[in-house]
Design goal:
heterodimer; A: 77 residues; mainly alpha; Non-ribosomal Peptide Synthetase Peptidyl Carrier Protein, Chain A; 3 helices; globular; B: 548 residues; alpha/beta; Rossmann fold; Aminopeptidase; 5-stranded parallel sheet; 5-stranded mixed sheet; 21 helices
Chain lengths: 77, 548
């Protein structure tokens, strides 16, 4: 299950940042890929919410700056 | 659309009081999808006033093609007494560019809620005053237009548009869905401001303009009434007539026997669309793709400026396959949704109605009536004489400038040079002695065609040269184009010139104008075409000229 959420979020990332999935780093985080900037973060979070059917709490959103954090938050939500 | 030749990306300046980047990014994608490349400059957060006021602002480094001004409700409320000056400031700061101002929408309710509209200083009452003032100020400036974001909010609801988290995290009010809707609306508005407007709506009959199948149900049983079940079709027709009044040409393409179908159109008491609204029809059993091509040829427009509505998915697929340049939206399956569906289509949008716009659809109907007379006339000359054509020649004025520039932008076929001019360009030429602009209006016993032809001569030293010469296709072939040439050349002769040069520049779409100059007395002189002004063609005898 965890693999699957991770894969789906990677797919969202690739789409939002317009890069091939294979080009994403193993552990993407804010700033890497470069398109993951502050505005990119908002776009990513909103897309992840839509894809995974979750809604993150405002306070948590600025902290979800790694793929791991997004996966964990999605699964706990 | 092939309306305009390939051009530079549209330069768009976005001035917001909130983070506009996400909307701009999404709008750029949507513009790209309709063939418009755009280059956005989004002013830094909260800097819209500086951008407007500072002559050295980055937004003014290059003249923008469009400006979008988007302030959120709290900003409008804070500046509620400055609405007029914000609008006139923007209009003055970007004089050449159409400016699209998002009107105010109060997405966030305020406590106590029941004070709304009961207290003069309640939020919604204040916002209503602001929007009223905004619309009034916009009307004072030719280049300022309102984008009705409040209307968008009514259609989709603040629950959908608003995301309170975004307000605190990203300094913008809109949710992802709201961003998407607003970007779509903005992109459609910019496309409409860029004159990407389609011309003709082609309609099926059975289950589209009325319910049921005429051939099976008969005229008494088809569903069409001002109340009850047939009401949706009645309302749909009313919306279609609103498009007709805004200049959209209407045509019918239906699989039916022609006679009974025309009988419904002419005699059914609840039919709103009548023959007098139709520029042409194909009511027969042939394939609709072919019929639509014939309609385009008969009306004399491109199939790429047509939208086809039909309830049958099968017919829609067929038309898409045979004539892929025709826009074929999927009509909703429930006729109750037809009226709102029509209003949601972006293809016929416009922010202003010129006098010609509102009369254009009628003119195409008159063309059909002319063709009917022509078929009954013995010779072409008899026909032309029987029309009683009157031509009026005017110089460019403040009042006809929008129409003149519109014609230079829209006329593709009978256009010697296809030079496109904006209102601003024409205004500059109008005020200069280096240019002579002649605007031709035409009328006959069937009606007034309005301003249909433009001829521009450049007088900047030496021999005068015809810079632009173009005429709307729907009046061609009656000698009016020759009359326009004759009138232009006699004006030049009156200015003391003895010769005039001209050129034909092929654009890929103006082949019909290729031999016009030679046919009317121009001859090669080196690599140019020139005419001796005392050998200029005369106005055809069936045309009466009024020179204003």
């Amino acid at each position: 299950m965890s693999e699957s959420a991770r894969d789906r979020i990677r797919e969202v990332m690739a789409r939002v940042f317009e890069v091939a999935e294979a080009e994403l780093p193993d552990e993407p985080e804010l700033g890497n890929p470069p398109a993951w900037d502050s505005l990119g973060h908002i776009r990513l979070v909103l897309e992840v919410e839509q894809e995974m059917g979750v809604r993150f709490i405002t306070d948590r959103i600025p902290e979800l700056t790694t793929l791991d954090a997004l996966v964990r938050e999605t699964e706990s939500g | 659309m092939s309306e305009t030749p390939k051009r530079e990306p549209a330069r768009i300046v976005a001035l917001g009081s909130y983070t506009f980047d996400l909307i701009a990014r999404s709008a750029a994608k949507k513009l790209e999808a309709v063939g418009i490349e755009s280059d956005w400059y989004v002013a830094p957060f909260g800097q819209y006033q500086q951008e407007i006021l500072d002559p050295a602002a980055a937004s003014k480094a290059q003249t923008p093609d469009f400006v979008v001004l988007a302030l959120h409700a709290e900003e409008w409320l804070r500046r509620q007494y400055d609405v007029g000056s914000i609008v006139s400031g923007a209009a003055k700061a970007y004089p050449g560019a159409p400016i699209l101002i998002h009107n105010a929408v109060g997405l966030r309710p305020e406590a106590p809620r029941f004070l709304e509209w009961n207290h003069t200083e309640s939020k919604r009452w204040r916002l209503a005053r602001i929007n009223e003032q905004l619309a009034r100020s916009a009307a004072d400036h030719d280049n300022v237009h309102i984008l009705d974001v409040e209307g968008l909010a009514l259609r989709h609801g603040s629950q959908t548009l608003f995301d309170s988290r975004m307000y605190y995290l990203a300094k913008m009010e809109f949710s992802q869905a709201g961003t998407d809707l607003l970007a779509t609306e903005t992109a459609h508005a910019l496309a409409a401001l860029g004159q990407r407007r389609l011309k003709c709506l082609v309609l099926d009959l059975d289950n589209t303009l009325w319910g049921g199948v005429l051939g099976e149900d008969g005229i008494e049983k088809i569903k069409l009434s001002s109340d009850g079940e047939g009401r949706a079709f009645h309302d749909f027709q009313r919306q279609i007539l609103r498009l007709y009044d805004a200049g959209i040409i209407l045509a019918v393409c239906s699989k039916n026997d022609e006679e009974p179908a025309l009988e419904v159109i002419e005699t059914h008491p609840d039919m709103l669309l009548r023959k007098e609204h139709l520029a042409a029809w194909r009511i027969n059993w042939s394939d609709k793709g072919q019929n639509i091509r014939e309609l385009a040829r008969e009306i004399n427009i491109g199939t790429d400026s047509m939208v086809f509505l039909d309830d049958s998915a099968h017919e829609r697929e067929l038309v898409r396959a045979i004539a892929p340049e025709v826009v074929v939206p999927d009509l909703p399956s429930d006729p109750s949704d037809y009226p709102t569906f029509l209003a949601s289509l972006p293809y016929f949008e416009t922010f202003a109605l010129t006098r010609e716009d509102s009369g254009r659809s009628r003119m195409y109907v008159q063309e059909r009536e002319r063709r009917e007379i022509e078929e009954k006339s013995e010779t072409l000359e008899d026909f032309l004489i029987s029309l009683g054509i009157e031509v009026t020649a005017q110089s460019a004025t403040r009042f006809n400038t929008p129409r003149i520039s519109q014609l230079t932008q829209r006329t593709n076929q009978f256009n010697l040079t296809t030079r496109r001019y904006s209102d601003g360009d024409i205004a500059k030429m109008r005020d200069s002695d280096d240019w002579q602009i002649l605007a031709i209006s035409a009328a006959d016993k069937l009606g007034d065609s309005g301003l249909v032809g433009v001829a521009i001569a450049a007088l900047d030293g030496g021999e005068p040269r015809i810079d632009s010469f173009l005429m709307s296709c729907r009046v061609l072939g009656r000698g009016i184009e020759v009359a326009m040439l004759s009138l232009l050349l006699s004006r030049l002769a009156r200015l003391g010139d003895s010769r005039c040069a001209a050129e034909y520049i092929p654009s890929g779409r103006n082949g019909m104008a290729e031999s016009f100059l030679e046919d009317n007395g121009f001859a090669a002189d080196g690599d140019r075409l020139v005419i001796d002004l005392n050998r200029a063609p005369v106005v055809p005898h069936w045309i009466e000229v009024k020179d204003e």
